[in-house]
Amino acid sequence: MVTGRVARITDFGAFIQFENGEVGLVHISQIAHSYVRNVSDYLQEGQTIEVKVLGRDEKGRLDLSIKELQDAPEEMPRPRMIGRQSPEFENKLRSFLRDAKERGPGEKGGKKRKK
Fold first, then answer.
1. 72 closest CA partner among 31, 27, 33, 30
2. Is 68 helix (H, G, I), strand (E, B) or coil?
3. Of 9, 12, 54, 110, which residue is the least packed, with the fewest Cβ within 10 Å?
4. In this structure, what DSSP letter does residue 41 have?
């Protein structure tokens, strides 16, 4: 764990400057366990924060994380389920798929053609 100051906020994360002058990036995906839409909802320039150093990228830049220092939520939020479609829609869809299967590949039109 290292303490640094938020030097700059961007759409994709925040640059953190350390006392020795070195700067690293906390990517937006490493700010919180929940979805982060706007970095400035979580961090402000000049703020002092604690980060974990994940490593260095191929160019020698520091990769940092805030969420790695936090306990993960016990249960991750589940995606909302999409309700069932109306029976009328389901029937139309089944009918469409059945007709498409009867037509076969490459045939066009709503009805099967007779030769």
1. 33
2. helix
3. 110
4. G
8 A C-beta contact, residue 5 and residue 19: no
Q: Give one word for 92, left, alpha or beta, with left for phi > 0 and alpha for psi -120 to 50.
A: alpha
Both tokens assigned to 46 = 């000049």
Number of other CB atoms surrounding residue 81 within 10 Å: 6
Per-residue pLDDT reduced to its tens digit, 23-80: 999 999 999 999 999 999 999 999 999 999 999 988 888 999 999 999 888 776 666 6
**Going from the N-terminus, what domains does the chain have, and what CATH number goes with each?**
2-69 (2.40.50.140)
Q: How far apart, in whole angstroms, are the C-alpha atoms of residue 70 and residue 90?
A: 45
Place of tokens 């100051």: 5
Question: pLDDT digits over 8-30, tens only?
Answer: 999 999 999 999 999 999 999 99
Helix (H) or strand (E) holding 18: none
Whether pTM exceeds 0.85: no
Q: Give the pair of three-digit tokens for residue 91.
A: 């029937």
